[in-house]
Amino acid sequence: MNRLWLCLLLLLMLSGCARRNYPEEKSGGWHFPLPGAKIISDYGYRNGRSHSGMDLKTVNKDKIYAVYDGEVVFSGQMSGYGNLVRIKHAKGLETYYAHNYKNLVTKGQRVKAGKVIALTGQTGRASTPHLHFEMRVNGKTKDPKLYIDFKKQTRRR
């Protein structure tokens, strides 16, 4: 009986019924936000405080890429975040790119996955140049690791 259930589960997975419903599947685009980066701080609690995203480190003024196709809904300074770019995507998803040295996009601009949107920096509440990357669905923060494999720098299926 266990073998039958395993076969049914495998069949569902192969048919696509068990796949996550990603915004980019509608538009076709996806890109890792900071190629070559390493995680310096995970999503969740750190030092007794909630950390709403992941911190990714490469070199100062490195290129930051839009993860999915979408529309820039904010490009400016915000307390704590410093220079911030927020992009609205399909299905209630928004991505946040913070502590930027310089934002390269403007509010209202449509962007494709893989477009350079900012350069890494140390603005706002940041102790070293890096990218603070957040994912929110319908306004609630989500662990980016649910959607992205940061070791392989690929999206999860």
Descriptors for this entry?
157 residues; mainly beta; three-stranded antiparallel sheet; 2 helices; 15 strands
Describe the structure.
The longest helix is centred in the first third of the chain and has 14 residues, at about 1-15. This protein is mostly beta strands. The chain has 2 helices and 15 strands.
| Percent of sequence in beta strands | 35-45%
Global morphology: globular
The main sheet comes to: 8 strands, antiparallel
Q: What separation lies between the terminal Cα atoms? A: 28 Å
Topology order in helix (H) and strand (E) letters: HHEEEEEEEEEEEEEEE
Task: Briefly say what this structure is.
This protein has 2 helices and 15 strands. With 157 residues, it is mainly β.
SSE topology sketch:
Elements: H1 2-15, H2 24-27, E1 38-41, E2 44-46, E3 49-51, E4 54-57, E5 63-65, E6 70-78, E7 82-88, E8 93-98, E9 102-103, E10 110-111, E11 116-119, E12 131-137, E13 140-142, E14 148-149, E15 154-155
Antiparallel strand pairs: 1-4, 2-3, 4-12, 5-11, 6-7, 6-10, 7-8, 8-12, 9-11, 12-13, 14-15
